[in-house]
Amino acid sequence: METGIVEYMTAPPALVAALPSQPPPLSAAEVKDHLSLIAEMMLVFSASNSFDAVAKSALERIAKYVGAEASSLFMLDDQGQAMVCTACFGPVDITGLRLAATSGIVGRAVQRQEAQIVRDVRNDADFGAVVDAKTGFTTKSILVAPLSVGRERLGAIEVINKIAGDGLFSADDLSLLHTLSRAAALAIRNLRLTEKLVEQERERHELELAAEIQRDLLPQPSAKEFPIHGINVPARAVSGDFYDIMPMPDGRIWFNIADVSGKGMNAALLMAKTSSLFRCLAKSAEHPGQLLNAINNELCETNSHGMFVTMVGGIFDPSTGIARLTNAGHEPPLLFNLTRESFLEIPADAPPLGIAAGIAGPEGFPVVDLDLKGGTLYVFTDGLTEATTFGGGMLGIDGVRALIRDHSEETLDLRIKNIAGAVKLPGKPLRDDLTLIIVEDNGVRTTETKPPAVVDLSVAAGVVLRLRVPARADRLKMVRQATEQASAYCGCGPEWTLDLVMAVDEACQNIIRHAYGGRDDAGDIVVDFVKEGDSLSVLLMDFAEPVDPSPIRSRDLNDVRPGGLGVHLIKSVTDDARFLPPPPGVGNLFKLTKRLAPKVN
Amino acid sequence: MTFEVRDVNGTAVVALTGDVDLQSSPTVRQRLLECLDKNKRLVVDLGAVSYIDSSGVASLVEAFQVSRKRSSYFALASVSPAAMRVLSLARLDKVFTIHADVTAATAAQG
Lengths: 601, 110
What we know:
The structure holds 2 protein chains of 2 kinds.
Chain A lengths: L1 H8 L3 H6 L9 H20 L3 H16 L1 E9 L5 E8 L8 E3 L3 H9 L3 E3 L11 H6 L6 E8 L2 E11 L8 H47 L10 E6 L7 E7 L5 E8 L3 H19 L5 H14 L7 E9 L4 E7 L5 E4 L4 E4 L22 E4 L4 E5 L1 H4 L10 H12 L4 H12 L10 E7 L22 E8 L5 H14 L4 H22 L8 E9 L2 E8 L9 E3 L10 H9 L2 E5 L7 E8 L6
Antiparallel strand pairs in A: 1-2, 1-6, 2-3, 4-5, 5-6, 7-16, 8-9, 9-10, 10-11, 11-14, 12-13, 12-15, 14-20, 15-16, 17-18, 18-19, 19-22, 21-22
Helix pairs in contact in A: 3-4, 3-7, 7-8, 8-9, 13-14, 14-15
Chain B lengths: L1 E7 L2 E10 L4 H14 L2 E12 L1 H16 L3 E5 L3 H9 L8 E2 L2 H6 L3
Parallel strand pairs in B: 2-3, 3-4, 4-5
Antiparallel strand pairs in B: 1-2
């Protein structure tokens, strides 16, 4: 850079050749003037924080010093395709004028990185008369010096129409302009670097704020004994992963883990939206299939620019050890049984969220009921499976299983930190955001299932009415009429009766459609109406195959659970509705209880 | 259960009577969809419905969704108390267009 200045200061050969004769040597006063202007301008350029503000006055000083009519500063745009006049001095204001980077004599100076001296533009083929035509100004002679630092081209300074003296630009004028342009170029470059630094600092600060807000969206660390713990380690400042753990008033706990496709700020914003939707919609959802379906439909309503979200959502009941899960395109969670050292994978049976709306039926996405039976459920993002190991390879699902086995004896709070810590190599950034939640069943059952009121098919005390009908749609009207009679017998009014009729009818429908698979004459339904204290209980028994007791029970086999409209109706109009262990010879036993509300006369 | 269709000033009016339950709802569903194939405006009169279950409600929901997709007009009219109880429990009373009587339902633009 320094050598560059020296070279040009000693008059470049091209320049010398362009001049008709050597100019007369400068007088001592002229040299002093020259130097003081250069010194002054350099000071102005280097001290200024806003180049535009001083550029105009600097151009004026230069023009007047050289004895020229006008001067202007052209800057190359970021692509280097065009030059824009950012400041000028003279009779016409051409600030904002845009020229191709190769256009005219200025373009030549920029492209060749050589100062140009043109004493009569009419003799120069490169002279573009377009600007003159537009402005009405007449250009006669031009002096141009390129603005550059090292190899970085910034633009050029142009001085037009020498009016002083003999009206001809001299080599001294050119070398003066060249010196000034070097100083100006340095000042401009420094200013740009400063601006860039300020902008980077601002962006970094904004990213920090975003990361802070994002951390606040994650739940507080769980208490040591709490059955669900989670951890999120972002690969960058902001993360596209998230998890949530949300205890409900009834003791059950909603949880989820999700991974937004893509990384960076846009993924983080979609993450914020999805996590808010989860929090908001979980409060009214009956099961994760319904919840994830609702989130999917909401996400699809607004364009997410091709991004989507994979999610495992679930609700865990510590009193029963049952976790109900929906896996929407996410990495399969692992259920680990410590005593048997066995793993069970729960694959995705729903698509990722945010791709297509309205793809699930009224029940929502498929739900898996997982009986943890004292085991532990590990749900994680691909940041764990795809983490780099010490050997440089990928951890993979086998690596994850080994990690789980290795840490299985540790307490939950320690275990989650150690597993996440094991894949975070010191001093190396993660390849992807890493998120993990662990759901642990302590195996303690706090609610014992009550023995059924009627354990065999003999008619027990308190039975108001017993009914045995073939499980067929055309018998439902009779069941409804019998229910009305039983309700009337207990002295209840029409509204109470309608609600009970509805509950019994829907329960019978579920037996016909699901237990017996909708086949006619597949078996009978026995309905007992039993008066128990101030309640009327209805026991519905079928002789179909009992519910599969294996850990994974597909939703279709026991549809009479929270979810469908029928089940919603049953739950809405009764005080209790649940499956009970069936007595011998009975397939399934479902019990409804409704507090009596005798008609007031 | 009976299913009767009549035309009121260019609107097909389906009058359902009796119990719309698991036995009758497949018929109701099919005939409602047929009506939507032939008509741009459909009103379902639930005034004489003594009972409707979740499968009956599902048939109405399906007809409603089809009408929306085709930008057809679909409304319920003079919903009986028994039917209204189910619709409100299912929170569908806010989803369906419900008119007090058939006259209002057929006169309404939509």
